[in-house]
Design a protein that fits this description.
Elements: H1 12-30, H2 32-62, H3 69-90, H4 96-108
Helix pairs in contact: 1-4, 2-3
C-alpha cells in the first residue's frame, strides 16, 4: 500500500501565450499592408496634431510664456513614431529572409 499523490498543473497560461504568439503576432506580419495603411492614417492625424501644437506653442512663446517640458516629450514621441514608421515602410515584409528574421523572435518570447 503505497501513498498515492496527484499533481495538477495548469497549462492555460502557456497555451494562451503560444496561441497569442502564433495567431496574433504572426498575423501582424501577414497583414502588414493593412497595418501600414492604418499606420499611415494615424501618422497623418499625428502630424496634424503636432502642427497644431507647434503653432500654439509658438504663439504662446511670442506672448512671453515658456515652453513646458511636456511639450518637448510630446514632440519627441512624435519624432520616434515617425522614425519607426519610416523603418516599417522600408522593410520588405514578404521576403522570406525577413520572415525568418522576425517570426522566430515571437516564439522566443513565450
Amino acid at each position: 500500500m503505497g501513498g498515492c499523490f496527484s499533481v495538477s498543473l495548469s497549462c492555460d497560461q502557456a497555451v494562451n501565450q503560444v496561441s497569442q504568439c502564433l495567431c496574433v503576432k504572426q498575423s501582424y506580419i501577414h497583414n502588414i499592408e493593412d497595418n501600414l495603411s492604418a499606420l499611415e492614417t494615424t501618422m497623418e492625424d499625428l502630424k496634424a496634431r503636432r502642427d497644431d501644437l507647434s503653432r500654439r506653442v509658438d504663439r504662446e512663446e511670442n506672448n512671453g510664456l515658456r515652453r513646458r517640458a511636456q511639450v518637448q516629450v510630446v514632440k519627441g514621441d512624435c519624432h520616434k513614431v515617425w522614425r519607426e514608421k519610416e523603418w516599417l515602410e522600408g522593410v520588405e515584409w514578404e521576403d522570406e529572409a525577413t520572415k525568418a528574421r522576425f517570426l522566430p523572435s515571437c516564439i522566443q518570447q513565450v
